[in-house]
Design the sequence.
């Protein structure tokens, strides 16, 4: 037992914790070297009535470049969850309370952060269209409407990108005030690559002329975007 590890006297619970760890390790290894992956968490305690997957229906769709870390965080969320609600932590808690391990499945891959957000939205909407009830809370994930590529990702999601992500995905920042006629692009190359764009918003930069909102974000032009040919995988091979 590792230093600082807490001994669990219940042998069933001990074995369950080992199976949780093994699932995190399994999916982490599958994701190694694949960049951004889109994944589903499935509920093995219920039958998949729509597509008959052996691991049960999907309850959540996500994307990550570090799936091992993300899967471990999901399991911890479930361990701290509560009975009520349809949120992810509560649904994971319900599964794990029965000493059943939620199952992870890699659905797709994407070359960049923004393309992974597109694929995540596509997969979530596909599942909603089939009739699954996902724990995803973002509105674009809960819609049954046909996804529209880059337009399906709200601009506000782009603030989650890092500076390095924004450069790769051709997302732009501007100091802009239409009323005062100011439009000044920010050179992202001068900023720290790991800085999240949302951190820059905290400075609450105001227009020097009218004190209005000043920092603006702009998605790439879809007709010129270098990743415009990216298309999420077909669901046909999902089962």
Sequence:
């Amino acid at each position: 037992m590792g230093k600082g590890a807490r001994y669990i006297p219940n042998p069933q619970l001990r074995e369950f914790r080992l199976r949780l760890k093994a699932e995190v390790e399994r999916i982490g290894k599958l994701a190694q070297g694949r960049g951004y992956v889109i994944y589903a968490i499935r509920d093995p305690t219920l039958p998949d009535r729509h597509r008959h997957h052996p691991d049960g229906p999907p309850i959540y769709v996500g994307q990550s470049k570090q799936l091992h870390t993300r899967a471990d965080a999901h399991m911890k969320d479930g361990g701290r969850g509560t009975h009520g609600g349809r949120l992810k932590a509560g649904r994971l808690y319900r599964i794990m309370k029965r000493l059943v391990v939620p199952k992870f499945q890699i659905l797709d891959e994407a070359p960049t952060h923004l393309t992974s957000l597109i694929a995540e939205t596509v997969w979530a909407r596909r599942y909603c269209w089939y009739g699954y009830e996902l724990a995803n809370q973002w509105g674009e994930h809960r819609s049954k409407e046909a996804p529209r590529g880059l337009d399906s990702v709200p601009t506000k999601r782009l603030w989650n990108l890092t500076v390095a992500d924004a450069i790769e995905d051709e997302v732009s920042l501007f100091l802009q005030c239409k009323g005062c006629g100011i439009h000044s692009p920010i050179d992202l190359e001068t900023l720290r690559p790991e800085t999240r764009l949302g951190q820059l918003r905290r400075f609450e930069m105001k227009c020097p002329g009218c004190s209005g909102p000043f920092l603006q974000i702009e998605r790439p032009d879809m007709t010129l975007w270098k990743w415009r040919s990216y298309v999420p995988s077909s669901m046909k091979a999902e089962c």
The CA atoms of residues 147 and 238 lie 18 Å apart. The mean pLDDT is 91. Strands lie at 36-42, 58-64, 103-110, 172-177, 182-185, 215-218.
